[in-house]
Design brief:
Order of helices and strands: EHHEEEEEEHEEHEHEEEEHEEEH
Number of helices: 7
Largest sheet: 9 strands, mixed
Helix content: 10-25%
Number of strands: 17
Shape: elongated
Structural class: alpha+beta
Radius of gyration: 19 Å
Distance between the termini: 36 Å
Amino acid sequence: MAEQIRINKYISSCGFCSRRQADRYLEEGRVTIDGETAGVGDRVEPGQTVCVDGTKIRINEEKIVIAFHKPAGVVCTSSKKDKDNIIDYLHFDQRIYPVGRLDKESTGLILLTNDGELTDRILRGRNGHEKEYEVTVNKPISQEVIRAMEQGVPILDTMTKPCRIRKLGERKFRMILTQGLNRQIRRMCEYFGYRVLTLKRVRIMNIELGQLPEGEWRYLTPKEREKLEKSMKGQKFYNDRAAADERID
């Protein structure tokens, strides 16, 4: 670090958490710079000591990104208060945290990283990143319903963005979304009188779940990392607090 940097960016660059989580810590008075309580908007200079809850943090040189096939029952949180949290499940030997979320009952691909900047850019809903899901519902679904869902559904006091759906069977389809409203797919299906039986995420941008077994993880390949980071290049960071609790399902 050769110059001053905003405290929330510094914390996320350390791989401690995302920028928006760092803002929460700052608002709660849990961050210090050289022993003094830091505030949102403060800047860190070279040589200064930053602590969160009394623990000194520093910028990580090695950026880690892994792909994990989340089983049902695992909760996508780094909070140790939840006994089913994803961090305890993985027992990874370095501090990482999930990029977004999948509902507890949902399965499939989720990324985990120590790169706060990457996390923030992937989660910006306005960036329009694709996420693909495989869905099974409780009764046959018609092409008319699929076309209607593709055009947008009124849920959570808003209209969902247009999406793409490909029917795989009488009760099964694949859906590609570019947003992540709370329990979006389940709510969209419920609007038309359907109940989701299984929901599995199979792709995030260029990262495919593929044949990764449930409960297993892998490092992203150099080619995957390169393509992912290239798609992030030049994106502006948006401090959108409305997306702070984004749940992608």
